[in-house]
Design goal:
Blueprint: E1 11-12, E2 15-16, H1 17-45, H2 57-73, H3 75-86, H4 88-107, H5 114-138, H6 144-175, H7 178-199, H8 217-247, H9 254-279, H10 284-307, H11 313-321, E3 325-326, E4 329-330, H12 339-360, H13 367-393, H14 400-428, H15 434-456, H16 467-497
Antiparallel strand pairs: 1-2, 3-4
């Protein structure tokens, strides 16, 4: 491996020019995603007289959970489409077009197009998100620290978009018109597509073509024919499901749908892991590491169930119970959604350095211990929210510092758990099942998002007195899981993992 650019490669600041293409397309995609997400729950629960949909909290948060879970679930077929049919470059392009169409559909001032817009964004994000990331790796066939630095720059683009989206879309959506905010998200995606189209040639062969499954041309042709049939059947199924809802033939109740979807995902994930244990022909060492991964998968479900309160429950808390006046200016509640991305931009380099610094002194916490720290930070964040809730129960609005501190604690928890979990999945997975187990990581992440929506639905604007108790319950579960995991972390590392898993940097 080398840490320098191959001879003759066109570079910018020592990196392939294609990195800038992917940096900006991902920045604008995250701008659109987080910008719209910052408005979503507020728009659904706003009164009709204020341009909203007047949904109750339980229904709105269940829809939010289904939406965020769907984004991760569709990344699995999105990766398959790129690998087997279109290649990553074309898949990203089509994904961006579908995302933009979804945002502009939301921008239509009609409630009948609302769910269609969400479906389009979910499908488009599933095509774009995983494949843009995979092309970053393809730009660095030599590997080495230059590749790590390239991913770090790429993650800066992700978080820069995540920071700017809620600020701009939140300002337009909350202070002018909800649909202006949704339109701004669409414009952001279009800007990303324009620069992608103009600079796409800089990607070269990275993601240019799908990967053949068979060496034999005849077998490969038959495979492609069948694969296209599967794809179009999938598209037809989506059209039918959406069409039945719009025709009024089938009624989709969001809360039961979220419950049944969560149960299905849980059984699917555990069923696949059980199949690997029994029929995967794994060695004893591989089975032990798979057992460790199973523990980490289940812990992350609880982590994301707490963390994803940010866009639902915390967003409503900011709108309803937080004094948003600063120096005489009332800022939009959606602006709180920018804090996580800003904190990651500031803190991720520190954490990357800190883990390495500890490692050199043989003090680096084990992977299970880092997961435990992630759960503890999530739990402490909910203790802060319990304190804020008591102030609300007493009849007062709280200062923005309560939410700001909670987001800080949760972001630190994310940096302890999320990048470490991705690294552990790649390094603990049996090589021949690595891609499927990475998909399983995202499957359980989707389950956590669904659970987050259902938990957020337990809060009610009509029963404020219950807020402290619910926050305390979430905090107790999170801290309890963190403590148990910390107590058994050495045993898990010694008996199951066997070797340490390290991570240099991360993002989201």
């Amino acid at each position: 491996m080398t840490d320098t650019a191959p001879t003759g490669e066109s570079t910018i600041l020592g990196h392939p020019r294609g990195l800038m293409t992917l940096f900006f397309v991902e920045m604008w995609e995250r701008f659109s995603y987080y910008g719209m997400r910052a408005l979503l729950i507020l728009f659904m629960t706003a009164a009709i007289t204020k341009g909203g949909m007047a949904m109750d909290d339980a229904t709105a948060t269940a829809i939010y959970g289904l939406y965020t879970a769907g984004v991760y679930l569709t990344s699995l077929p999105g990766g398959w489409i790129a690998d087997r049919l279109l290649g990553a470059q074309r898949t990203v392009w089509y994904g961006g077009l579908i995302i933009a169409a979804g945002h502009f559909t939301l921008a239509i001032p009609s409630h009948t197009t609302f769910f269609l817009g969400l479906v389009l964004i979910v499908l488009g994000t599933g095509l774009l998100k995983p494949n843009a990331s995979s092309m970053v790796g393809d730009l660095y066939p030599e590997g080495g620290s230059r590749r790590d630095a390239g991913f770090s720059l790429y993650y800066m683009g992700i978080n820069l978009g995540g920071f700017l989206g809620p600020i701009i879309c939140g300002l337009l959506g909350q202070q002018l018109n909800w649909h202006y905010g949704f339109a701004a998200a669409g414009v952001g995606m279009v800007l990303g597509l324009i620069q992608y189209r103009l600079t796409r040639r800089s990607l070269g062969q990275a993601g240019a073509h799908a990967l053949p499954v068979h060496d034999d041309a005849g077998r490969q042709q038959r495979f492609l024919k069948n694969a296209w049939k599967v794809l179009w059947l999938g598209v037809a199924a989506v059209v039918v499901v959406v069409g039945l809802g719009y025709a009024g033939i089938v009624t989709y109740a969001p809360v039961p749908l979220a419950l049944w979807s969560g149960l299905f995902i849980l059984l699917l994930g555990l069923g696949f892991l059980a199949w690997l244990f029994v029929y995967g022909k794994l060695s004893t060492v591989e089975k032990k590491r798979l057992a460790a991964l199973t523990i980490l998968f289940l812990v992350q479900v609880l982590f994301w169930a707490g963390y994803e309160q940010a866009g639902s429950n915390f967003n409503l808390f900011a709108e309803r119970y937080t004094d948003l006046q600063v120096f005489g200016y009332a800022f939009p509640a959606a602006w709180f959604q920018s804090e996580n991305s800003l904190l990651i931009l500031l803190l991720a380099p520190f954490f990357a350095w800190f883990w390495v610094w500890l490692g050199r002194r043989k003090l680096d916490p084990s992977t299970p211990m880092k997961f435990a720290l992630g759960m503890l930070f999530i739990g402490v964040g909910f203790l802060v929210m319990m304190g804020a809730a008591w102030i609300v129960v007493a009849g007062h609005k709280v200062l923005p510092t309560w939410l700001a501190l909670t987001y800080l604690l949760h972001t630190v928890g994310e940096l302890c758990l999320s990048p470490v979990g991705l690294s552990a999945t790649t390094k603990l997975s049996p090589r021949r099942y690595a891609s499927r187990l990475m998909g399983t990581w995202f499957l359980f992440m989707a389950l956590g998002d669904l659970l987050a929506g259902l938990i957020a639905g337990r809060f009610s604007a009509h029963d404020v007195g219950e807020m402290p108790r619910i926050y305390l319950t979430i905090a107790a579960i999170s801290i309890g899981v963190g403590v148990v995991l910390a107590l058994f972390s050495r045993l898990i590392k010694r008996r199951l993992i066997g070797e340490e898993v390290r991570i240099a940097s991360g993002g989201h």
